[in-house]
Amino acid sequence: MRAMDFADQVVVVTGGGRGLGAALVRAFAGQGARVVIDYRRSREQAEALADELGDRVVAVAADVTDRAQVDALFAAARERFGTPVTTVVNNALADFTFNGDARSHADAITWEEFSGQFEGSVRGALNVAQAALPGMRELGAGRIVNVGTNLFQNPVVPYHDYTAAKAALLSLTRTLAADLGPEGITVNMVSGGLLRTTDASAATPEEVFDAIAANTPLRRVVTPEEFADAALFFASPWSRAITGQNLVVDGGLVND
């Protein structure tokens, strides 16, 4: 299987303008990759990040739930860098706040809440993967990295809609891996716990961070930058024989 150095990669990070997405963009850019920051509403943050990181990084607006916009995103990436996208990180998240006290519980949650999360996590990831495939096939290689959650194994908060959508994304990760492996395209997932701190976790009470840290072997909460390290691994030459996997990056809180 062909393995590309970061300097040869063109990476699309969805939802890359802020929070975890910005950490992912910085990580790939720091390794010399060319990076496309996809954003939906965070234009100011995305463009500022691109300006900061230099001419190997560009910000492009696209709602990942809209296939036409995603196709335009990939066309813009190819026009800017003169080569197909090699790597995608499906990080974009439908609007969500990580505060268990503010989430709908079992007796009140609506299908509309589930549907919104499935649109962002599953439809968005599928649109991006499908838009990437022609270029990856042209190159004979590709890397797809999906962002998941450790709440599959440790559902300590009632994020019913978010967790169900990410579980579906894990299933898609594995079926795509089986389908695309013969073409040299790997598909993996990196699943974090609560991160300290992103825009989505900013509403999380401090006592929740403290409780997680106390029950984690490393006795601290993982940062977005540490999470991004794992995404780099799945895009690196060292992961060339790995596909269909879900790597939990939460400081050891969950170990299965």
In short:
The protein has seven helices and seven strands.
What does this structure look like?
- With 256 residues, the protein is of the alpha/beta class.
- The protein has one domain: NAD(P)-binding Rossmann-like Domain (Rossmann fold, 3-Layer(aba) Sandwich), CATH 3.40.50.
- It is built from seven helices and seven strands.
- A seven-stranded parallel sheet has the order 3-2-1-4-5-6-7, sandwiched between helices.
- It is globular, with a radius of gyration of 17 Å.
- The model has no long low-confidence stretch (mean pLDDT 92).
Q: CATH homologous superfamily, by name?
A: NAD(P)-binding Rossmann-like Domain
**Tally of structural domains:** 1
| CATH-level-2 architecture | 3-Layer(aba) Sandwich
Strand order of the largest sheet: 3-2-1-4-5-6-7
| Tally of alpha and pi helices | 7
Assigned CATH class = Alpha Beta
Q: H/E element string?
A: EHEHEHEHEHEHHE
Q: Please report the total strand number as a whole number.
A: 7
Major β-sheet profile: 7 strands, parallel
What gap, in angstroms, lies between the N and C termini? 28 Å
Mean pLDDT, to the nearest integer, reads 92
- Percent of residues in helices: 40-55%
Strand content: 15-25%
The CATH topology assignment is Rossmann fold
Structural class assignment: alpha/beta
Shape: globular
Poorly predicted parts: none
Radius of gyration: 17 Å
